[in-house]
Amino acid sequence: MNISRNFFLFLSENKLLNHAAKKWGLRLGASKVVAGTTIESAMKTIAGLNEAGLACTVDRLGEFVTDKQEALEAGQYCINTLHAIHEWKVDCHLSLKLTQLGLDIDKNLCMNNMRSIVQTANQYDIYVNIDMEDYSRYQTTLDILFALRKEFDNVGTVIQSYLYRANEDIDHLQGVPLRLVKGAYKESADVAMQEKADIDKNFLHLIKKHLSHGSYTAIATHDHEIIEQVKAFVHENQIAYHSFEFQMLYGFRHDLQQQLANEGYRVCSYVPFGNDWYGYFMRRLAERPQNIKLAVKSMLSNS
């Protein structure tokens, strides 16, 4: 199965296929995990999820932008998405990647983009989450977050539990809303744990620590064992349900998302959309063999 994982990760980085995929549209099963290509299609999906009792975070797919104009357009698109969230009156916040907003071009360009986005979101009382990318961009992402937090309190980020420094960073991020994840990038053993058992153990430790700090915590996992342990912890420690949420990907484990929502927990569905869906979809296929079956089934049903 590692061969399949590496194969799909390889495909995810193929620029020729990515370019072609924008012309194909959401075929080959991608429509099951990507909420269309437009802001309107995303809002319709989010409205439906809200009706089912699920909150949402929306992400316009795209990353690793190297053209200044494209970065500026991406920033404006994020602002347009915020306008739509406000106009549609949906329970939804915004997730974004700094490399889409010019981080790899110029840090000041990215910072200006982010300031405009967070300022607009603040006017609408919408939260903005900065997705964490690979380790080479980790510290810069935190630097931008801390700079923004001096002006705004409606912005947070992601901490990856496989990083050795995650525990220390959690201490510096008390009071900051965080999405906690295990970590999906292939990082060096010098900076990241490599064994699943170690990562899972640290993941649960970080969740308990941030919750104990009284800081809002988004627990991003489909791991039912972790979820059950978190449920036991919050009950034992009388942690209010409004101080955390379970977060899962749109199109995956909808049954579990609905079950948790029915039990009274806040559940947030991570809803991606946009033309630049190919890389995201390939990485989802790389994560679990079940996702490949989903794609094939959808392709056959649409043929």
UniProtKB/TrEMBL annotation:
Residues 42-287 form the Proline dehydrogenase domain. One of its GO terms (biological process) is L-proline catabolic process to L-glutamate. Gene3D superfamilies: 3.20.20.220. It is an enzyme of class 1 (oxidoreductase). FAD binds at residues 132, 160, 182-184, 196, 221-222. InterPro entries: FAD-linked_oxidoreductase-like, PRODH_bac_arc, Proline_DH_dom, Proline_oxidase. It comes from the Bacteria. The keyword rRNA-binding does not apply. It catalyses: L-proline + a quinone = (S)-1-pyrroline-5-carboxylate + a quinol + H(+). Substrate binds at residues 97, 283-284. Keywords: FAD, Flavoprotein, Nucleotide-binding, Oxidoreductase, Proline metabolism. Its EC number is 1.5.5.2. Pathway: Amino-acid degradation; L-proline degradation into L-glutamate; L-glutamate from L-proline: step 1/2. Its cofactor is FAD. One of its GO terms (molecular function) is proline dehydrogenase activity. Binds 1 FAD per subunit. This is proline dehydrogenase.
